[in-house]
Every structure is written in C-alpha cells, then in structure tokens.
Amino acid sequence: MIGSTARRRATAFGGALFLVAASLSAPGSAPAQPGGAGASVVKQLEFGTLLPGMPEVITVNDVLRRAEVVVGGQGAVDVRLILPTEMVSSTGARVPLFFGTTDAAWSQGPSNTPTPFNPHEVKRVILAPGRPDVRIYLGGTARVPADQLPGPYTATVTVLVVRPNA
What we know:
Layout lengths: L1 H9 L2 E13 L11 E7 L1 E6 L5 E3 L8 E7 L1 E8 L3 E4 L4 E5 L5 E5 L6 E3 L5 E5 L6 E5 L1 E3 L10 E11 L3
Parallel strand pairs: 1-14
Antiparallel strand pairs: 1-3, 2-5, 4-13, 5-12, 6-11, 6-14, 7-8, 7-14, 8-13, 9-10, 9-12
C-alpha cells in the first residue's frame, strides 16, 4: 500500500501556455505599413512539471520560465493579452489558471528592469526608430487540484498589437 501511494504522489504532469502574436489595425486606421509595428514570441510560458494539489507560480522575474514577447516597429501601439482561465489535457481534464495584476511586465531594452502592469488591461507603448524594442513578460499561477489527472496540459495566450485610432 505504501508503494502505490508513493507512486501516485510521484505522478506528475506538465503544463505550458503557448503565445500567439497578432498585429491588427484598429477600426478606421490604416493597415500596418512597412516600418509599422508587430510582435514576435521569444519564449513560451512553461509551468513544467506540476504536482497534484500544489499551485505552481511563475513570476515575471523568473527568466527561465516566464513568457517573453518582443514588440517592435514605430509609433504608438496598444498591447492586449487574451488570457485563458485554464489549461486542458488531450482527454479534457482541466487545470485552473490565474493571472494577477502584477503577472505582466514590460521593458524597453534588454538591460532595463521590467515594470509590472496589469495583464487584464491594455498597455500602450511608444515605439521609435533608434529606441530598443519593447519586451512584454508574462507569468501566472496554475492552481492544480489535489485529484488532478497526470498528463500534459496546454493553453494559448494571444498577444494583440493594435494601432490606436489617430
């Protein structure tokens, strides 16, 4: 009996959030032109091995596991994160996700200290020639139930880069 309990506790599962970047023009504005703005995913949010009953927290300062998106170009853009509320396995099992008001940060240039912002709100950034690209970082919390089934779990975060109306 002790052996089966130990095996059950050692059974783990993994979780990852995949980021998708999209550039859009706001209604009434011109489509992005060459020299406009866009985003590219540098690193996915990786929860890695998760254990039943143990929440897994990734902060924006966790350079190994946080997500990172680079926004480049020129002009003012609004960055919006479409955040999932759960990760799902191929069998339909779910792990709840939580993104707090300081689970996103931004910096302009790789040497700058990230400044937190609320990932549930739109973040306006100014891009200019000669200035470093803006980097958006994302952390979060996987709230793993005690009776969670093992296996891989995934979700998608969409990063929208939108030109505001002029």
